């Protein structure tokens, strides 16, 4: 069966805000879904308020879902031992408890072009891949995931 909706994901690591915006526009993104638990950044332009303001100027909606961020205890353990297998296993279990939020994001996919955002450039080492997978699993026949 054909996928009718694409869910993009992006990391801002290694990009400045202008490059980031150009990338979103190149893919026609109309809504950026921030999946960081704490939407703050030392990188200029990527904290919640500044990012939301800039995206608004570019006609891209900004939405933040704290519940789809990696809980601090899971993040801190990963930073201590770099055990990605454990991280993804525990985070996936955590996401299973966030079904209402997953459904809410899934339902947004039918309105506009959506992109999940977190920090890591490499989606294979970022929790946004798990989030995207859970959203796709909600009804996999309709959604494909593309990392930009």
Radius of gyration: 15 Å
How many individual β-strands? Answer: 5
> Which parts are unreliable, with pLDDT below 50 for 5 consecutive residues or more?
none
Helix content: 40-55%
> What is the level-2 CATH architecture name?
Alpha-Beta Complex
Structural class: alpha/beta
Summarize model confidence as the mean pLDDT: 94
Element string (H = helix, E = strand)? EHEHEHHHEHE
What count of structural domains? 1
Largest sheet: 5 strands, parallel
**What sort of overall outline do the alpha carbons produce when their principal axes are compared?**
globular
* Count of alpha/pi helices: 6
Residues in β-strands, percent: 15-25%
The strand order across the widest sheet is 3-2-4-1-5
> In angstroms, what separates the terminal alpha carbons?
23 Å
CATH topology tier name: Protein-Tyrosine Phosphatase, Chain A
What does this structure look like?
It is a single chain. This protein is of the alpha/beta class. It has a single domain (5-147), classed as Protein-Tyrosine Phosphatase, Chain A, CATH 3.90.190. It contains six helices and five strands. It has helices at 17-26, 48-57, 72-81, 84-96, 99-108, 128-138, and strands spanning 5-11, 31-34, 61-64, 114-118, 143-147. The protein has a five-stranded parallel β-sheet with strand order 3-2-4-1-5, sandwiched between helices. Helix 2 (48-57) links the parallel strand 2 (31-34) and strand 3. Helix 3 packs antiparallel against helix 4 (84-96). The mean pLDDT is 94.
Primary descriptors:
single chain, 148 residues, alpha/beta, Protein-Tyrosine Phosphatase, Chain A, five-stranded parallel beta sheet, 6 helices, 43% helix
């Amino acid at each position: 069966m054909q996928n009718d909706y694409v869910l993009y994901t992006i990391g801002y690591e290694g990009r400045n805000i202008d490059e980031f915006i150009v990338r979103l526009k190149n893919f026609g993104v109309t809504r950026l879904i921030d999946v960081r638990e704490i939407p703050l950044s030392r990188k200029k332009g990527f904290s919640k308020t500044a990012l939301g303001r800039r995206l608004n100027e570019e006609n891209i909606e900004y939405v933040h879902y704290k519940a789809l961020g990696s809980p601090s205890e899971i993040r801190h353990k990963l930073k201590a031992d770099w055990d990605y297998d454990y991280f993804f296993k525990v985070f996936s279990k955590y996401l299973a408890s966030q079904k209402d939020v997953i459904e809410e994001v899934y339902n947004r996919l039918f309105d506009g072009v959506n992109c999940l955002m977190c920090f890591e450039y490499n989606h294979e080492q970022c929790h946004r891949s798990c989030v995207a997978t859970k959203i796709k699993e909600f009804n996999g026949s309709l959604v494909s995931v593309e990392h930009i």
